[in-house]
Amino acid sequence: MKKHKMTTMAKRMLAASLAGVMVAAPLTGCGAGGGKKGEPTTLTVYSQRANYAGEQRGWSAKVLEDELNLKINIVNNSGGAFNTRMESGDLGDVIVFGSEGDFLQAMQAGLLYDWEEDDLLADYGTYIQDNMPYALEKVRDMSTDGKIYGLGYNVASNSNDIQSFFYTWDIRWDLYKELGYPEVKDLDDLLEVFKGMKEICPTDDAGKPTYAVSLWPDWDGDMVMYVKSTATAFYGWDEFGVGLYNPVDGSFHGALDEGSPYLEMLDFFHELYKNNLLDPDSMTATYDTSNEKVRNGGTFWSIFDYAGSLAYNTDEHVSQGKMMRSLTPTEASPIVYGLSVLGSNSYWAIGSKCQHPEEAMELINYLATPTGRLTMEYGPKGVTWDYDEDGNTYFTEFGKQAINDKAGTQMEGDYAGGSYKDGECQINCITWTLDATNPESNGEHYNKESWKSNQLPAQYEIDQDWRDYTGCNTTNEYMSSGNYVVSPGSAYVAGEKSDELKTTWTQVTGCITEYTWKAIYAESDAEYEELVAEMIEKANAYGYQECWDWTNAEAAKRKAAEEAVGAID
């Protein structure tokens, strides 16, 4: 039996008897947590998206204790945690699923709490209930019993909006300027630009060799991540099963099909390797070690903002006239993802054995409020950010310092004890998408890049040079001014694979990733061609066509789901 502090009828009777008292009592914006007394309740948060395990500490821990009288202990997904916890029948109090399949599996196994039982959502999740109806109904439709067992993350306030671009084609702009701004139409032109950059900047800040790019394999899945992502960044076709999906017409293009974008990009990365422009440590690197090379100026380019400009553009670099900014090949049409009022394919849920479901619901609800969303993104309100008299969001001077130097900025006052970075919430999952509209602001989004307070003149000459050359002031403005492909958000859920197909799938995708890396590192064109041919031959023998057929059928379902989104206002 699930434990509740008070039945719904009892709560209503108590509310009626205390009506006179409540008139004089202050109201809180997110449940009764802020007014609770006594020892904080500790919740176990099992997050498949978390990189950290242990008690949440620092400023975000204090915020949760002050607002909700809660402490959280985070369990991540290391060491086969999902299977172990599924077998035990107890996934945790609050659960963050990084996989839609795992969410469905837990739902079907009866390990998730019904959010409408005893009016849990209505009483403790009021902000979610009032503002995320489509996302809740999506989960109801996914369940076999018509109940709500969770909430998708990355929820949009408007289905017509798009995310900020993150396939931004960042390049060392100072070196590009020094080369005389050569034309970049395609990847062949880009290769020549990299050769020129290597000649004028052969070493990084630490005196180590420079390269065009540093890859990392720890994010590989059904294909090698960086290879398929470059195809996505160039053609606007999204990763999908054993290939790429074209959001414009719903067509599927297998990774190993003749002339496929995946094979085209594989050829490009081999060319980089042949010309000593690919970090030779890429095959054994991690995201962190690759990003460290970016921060040290060891790379010239990234298709991603987070592995390019966001890592490289420190005050130290830009004050020296060094900067990464966007330069998209004119023939490219990068993908940008449409926002979905239905939410995306990671999920918030509450475990069926949770002894404190009200507090668990309050936690998720707080994170969905505008204050909770901004606080977990940027720090405590009034300390790092606030609203001006017109409702525009801005960073305090301390907040600007903290956001720019997270690891070095020490928290102060009530939040003292460790750096800003030490206190960041480690659940690693959001509620509202960053580009959703914040209803408490003056029409701004949660994304700091959209804030009026951040639309500033260029602070450095090199940044002004990029603005003058492109005629744009921001990356999003630049990316929106060129060609791009919108991938609509939808309620598409991947179908179940049979056990036989799962086995085939593992063999086929393992072959693709293994031979992709081998081909990238081929020492000659002849060896490269031989390895690609061997990859295709072996994958076909394992059952590539079966995987292709299944994915192609799924593409039709995805297209239908995307078209259905148009019916939502």
Contiguous uncertain segments of 5+ residues: 1-32
How many alpha or pi helices? 23
Radius of gyration (Å) = 25 Å
Note the gap between the termini.
40 Å
Q: Kindly estimate the percentage of residues that lie in beta strands according to DSSP.
A: 5-15%
Secondary structure layout plus pairing:
Layout: H1 8-17, H2 19-24, E1 41-47, E2 54-55, H3 58-68, E3 70-75, H4 81-88, E4 94-97, H5 100-108, H6 120-124, H7 126-131, H8 133-142, E5 151-152, E6 167-172, H9 173-178, H10 187-200, H11 225-235, E7 238-240, E8 243-245, E9 252-254, H12 261-274, H13 287-295, E10 301-304, H14 309-312, H15 315-319, E11 324-326, E12 335-337, E13 347-350, H16 357-368, H17 370-378, E14 385-387, E15 393-395, H18 397-404, H19 461-470, H20 475-481, E16 485-487, H21 499-520, H22 525-542, H23 544-565
Parallel strand pairs: 1-3, 1-4, 12-16
Antiparallel strand pairs: 2-3, 4-13, 5-13, 6-10, 6-11, 7-8, 8-9, 14-15
Helix pairs in contact: 11-12, 21-22
Describe the protein's architecture and organization:
There is one protein chain. The chain is of the alpha+beta class. It has 23 helices and 16 strands. It has helices at residues 8-17, 19-24, 58-68, 81-88, 100-108, 120-124, 126-131, 133-142, 173-178, 187-200, 225-235, 261-274, 287-295, 309-312, 315-319, 357-368, 370-378, 397-404, 461-470, 475-481, 499-520, 525-542, 544-565, and strands at 41-47, 54-55, 70-75, 94-97, 151-152, 167-172, 238-240, 243-245, 252-254, 301-304, 324-326, 335-337, 347-350, 385-387, 393-395, 485-487. The strands form five sheets. It has a six-stranded mixed beta sheet. Helix 11 (225-235) packs across helix 12 and helix 21 packs antiparallel against helix 22 (525-542). It is globular and about 70 Å long. 44% of the residues are buried.
